Amino acid sequence: MNPTPVLWGAPSFWIERFPLFYGVEKGIFQQQGVYPEIKVHHGGPELLQAVRDQRVHVGEIGLPPFLAAFSQGLPARIIGSTFIRSLDHFLAARSGIGSLEDLRGRRIGILSWGSCDEYFIRRLLKSRGIDPDNDVTLIALGTAYGDTACFTDGCIDAGFMVEPALSAGESNGFFHVLARVGDFFPRYQWGGIFASDSWIQDNRPLLTALMTGYRKSVQMMAADPEACIPLGSRIFGVEPAVFRSALRRHLPNLEPDARIDLEGLENCIQIQRELGAVLGKIDAEALVFQL
Fold first, then answer.
1. Which of 1, 9, 39, 116 could crosslink 62 through cysteines, CB 3.0-4.6 Å?
2. Which of 182, 141, 187 is nearest to 161 (CA)?
3. Quick check: 1 pLDDT over 80?
4. The domain spanning residue 167 has which CATH number?
5. Boundaries of domain holding 80
């Protein structure tokens, strides 16, 4: 019997998607009777619009834009955590920029307006007394997000870089890590796997199979990281040493069971409320349907 294909929406293409590719490569998802097909939407708000339009029913996303949409009636809930649960997200900068204070007057790249990056950079800048609306220029990179050429061609001076592009750029001397976002936040649930309410109601066995495959894939990655290197370097088009460095950066905080951290989720909700991005009260437990 052929596995059932399921469209899996994502806001961007980086190492957080690797468990899907790895699970397919190893036949893990197929053993569960499912086959995730990834569709990248180049931004959290863009992905969420696809959910509203019923073009996407399952996927993964950083929780800040998801919470904003949920507070406005998005018919979806969080069914699990991505393997990058904590805020292992990095702001990179060109040489000559040694601190956040040095960002004043600079151009800073983000994924898109309303994405996690915009929420994060505003908090980081304000922590140093920098007005994100007047003291810097924020640039939404869209499809160019994660491209090291944004630094080398002078488009941006700093920006959020995701793996393995982060390790590739570091190894080539294009930029250095200026800040880890998680150092500016309390315990925090970042990456979430979501499903539309209709799919939770009508396709529970399929979603359970997807989550089982996802967990098994992540656990296999954690058990033998070196076995991931050939596939990762091929998918992302980087040298094996670069992908090895990228994976090692995320292994210490890897979440193997796709479990949502409810305390971290509560903190995430509270921060979004303080930013004015969440309307009304959100009950963390009501938001989650752990599978």
1. 116
2. 141
3. no
4. 3.40.190.10
5. 4-86+188-235+253-287
